[in-house]
């Protein structure tokens, strides 16, 4: 039996009738760009995040950029984030002409190490962007304390953390704003591209709504130069349907993670951190192993498909060579990039598939 890394078709089958009807309704209404379906989704997603506002946009990257525009990140500013992330966390910093300043991870959690954050703060630091990687929030109390003492706002990259909980509080509601992606492979995925910024700030939300739509509050009256970052109506409607199932899907992923943990606990592999004060939504289940590339190939031969998130840390990407970082600057991130493997993870994954994956890993490490 083949085990895909992710099976979007299996998810669609579970909601097909409702989804087909919903997409047809958007077409009948011709509510294609923003519009009532997007407004409805914004209301529902803000409720999930327990924030006052949600501003829906056309990708997670746009969400991060929009938040940085509204927070007035400018050329010469420094923005601190973590080396172990997808490049889209950094790109919007560059769009603003600001400088990404990277820090290493904590070895147990894979997320930003607060002690290293503290050392990286300078008088040019204007923003701190922790990333809730793999669905688990960063260590937000420590990060917020350090940022608060320095008077620097915190923007959460919650692109992998829809519904994730930190000490009873929702991802996205912890900093000045939180950015989400609805890329199809995320826990809450559009049928295309999508993203959102959530915030409690009326001023930030108003500014972001204007900037998202060509700098206008009133059609054809433009108060500032803006962008076209609008979410499509079809995506708003799709996300509204899926939002009703997100809790159920995240619960299924949590059960899969527990099962993986149980079946792998006696093997010489490094398991991801268990839920504690952070309640992960298990966007990814990431193991640390020796001979990672060999394991990846071994599993692929057995029709088990895994991933690496991410094979090259941001500071070693060609695109960011100009920042002047070298190998050795973030040793924990670098070490992990060589050892990590993301196992198949999606709500519809079956117990048999999980056993097939863990049995094959067992054979490999035992051989
Ligand atoms: C997916 C992702 C993004 C970017 O979102 P897009 O919708 O693909 O633009 C940003 N940060 C992280 C951590 C992500 O996983």
Write structural notes for this entry:
With 367 residues, the chain is α/β, with parallel strands linked by helices. It folds into two domains: 8-243, Aspartate Aminotransferase, domain 2; 246-365, Aspartate Aminotransferase, domain 1. It is 40% helix and 14% strand. It is built from eleven helices and 14 strands. It has helices spanning 8-29, 36-49, 60-70, 91-95, 114-120, 140-150, 202-212, 233-264, 292-301, 331-339, 351-366; strands spanning 53-57, 78-82, 99-103, 125-128, 155-157, 165-166, 169-170, 177-181, 195-199, 216-218, 221-222, 278-279, 285-288, 340-343. A four-stranded mixed sheet has the order 1-9-8-5. A three-stranded parallel sheet has the order 3-2-4, covered by helices on one side. A hairpin with a 2-residue loop joins strand 6 (165-166) and strand 7 (169-170). Helix 2 (36-49) packs parallel to helix 8. The radius of gyration is 20 Å and the shape is globular. The model has no long low-confidence stretch (mean pLDDT 97).
Strand content: 5-15%
Give the overall pLDDT as a whole number.
Answer: 97
Helix content: 40-55%
Order of strands across the main sheet: 1-9-8-5
Largest sheet: 4 strands, mixed
Class inferred from helices and paired strands? alpha/beta
The low-confidence parts are none
Ligand names:
pyridoxal-5'-phosphate
CATH homologous superfamily classification of the largest domain:
Type I PLP-dependent aspartate aminotransferase-like (Major domain)
Q: How many structural domains are formed by the residues?
A: 2
Terminal Cα span: 22 Å
- From the spread of the alpha carbons, the general shape counts as globular
- What multimeric state do the chains show? single chain
The tally of strands reads 14
Do you know the CATH architecture of the largest domain? 3-Layer(aba) Sandwich
CATH class category of the largest domain: Alpha Beta
- Secondary-structure element sequence? HHEHEHEHEHEEEEEHEEHEEHHEH
CATH topology category name of the largest domain: Aspartate Aminotransferase, domain 2
What gyration radius follows from the Cα positions, in whole Å? 20 Å
Count of discrete alpha- or pi-helical segments spanning 4 or more residues: 11
């Amino acid at each position: 039996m083949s085990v895909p890394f992710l099976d979007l078709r299996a998810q669609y089958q579970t909601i097909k009738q409702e989804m087909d009807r919903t997409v047809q309704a958007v077409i009948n209404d011709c509510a294609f760009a923003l519009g009532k379906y997007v407004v409805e989704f914004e209301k529902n997603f803000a409720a999930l995040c327990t924030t006052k506002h949600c501003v829906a946009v056309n990708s997670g990257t746009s969400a991060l950029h929009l938040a940085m525009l509204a927070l007035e990140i400018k050329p010469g500013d420094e923005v601190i984030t973590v080396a172990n992330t997808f490049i889209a966390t950094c790109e919007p910093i560059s769009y603003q002409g600001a400088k990404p300043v990277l820090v290493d991870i904590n070895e147990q959690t894979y997320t930003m190490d607060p002690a290293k954050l503290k050392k990286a703060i300078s008088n040019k630091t204007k923003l701190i962007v922790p990333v809730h990687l793999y669905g688990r929030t960063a260590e937000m109390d420590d990060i917020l304390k350090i940022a608060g003492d320095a008077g620097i706002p915190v923007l959460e990259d919650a692109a992998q953390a829809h519904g994730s909980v930190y000490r009873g509080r929702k991802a996205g509601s912890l900093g000045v704003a939180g950015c989400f992606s609805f890329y199809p492979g995320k826990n809450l995925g559009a049928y295309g591209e999508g993203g959102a910024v959530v915030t409690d700030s009326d001023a930030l939300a108003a500014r972001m709504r204007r900037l998202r739509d060509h700098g206008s509050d009133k059609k054809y009256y433009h108060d500032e130069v803006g962008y076209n970052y609008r979410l499509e109506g079809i995506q708003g409607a799709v996300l509204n349907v899926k939002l009703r199932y997100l809790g159920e899907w995240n619960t299924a992923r949590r059960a899969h993670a527990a099962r993986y943990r149980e079946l792998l606990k006696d093997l010489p592999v490094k398991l991801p951190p268990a839920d504690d004060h952070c309640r992960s939504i298990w966007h990814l289940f990431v193991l640390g192993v020796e001979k990672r590339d060999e394991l990846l190939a071994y599993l692929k031969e057995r029709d088990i498909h895994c991933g690496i998130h991410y094979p090259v840390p941001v500071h070693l990407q060609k695109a960011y060579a100009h920042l002047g970082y070298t190998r050795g600057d973030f040793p924990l991130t670098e070490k992990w990039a060589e050892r990590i493997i993301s196992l198949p993870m999606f709500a519809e994954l079956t117990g048999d598939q999980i056993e097939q994956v863990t049995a094959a890993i067992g054979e490999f490490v035992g051989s």
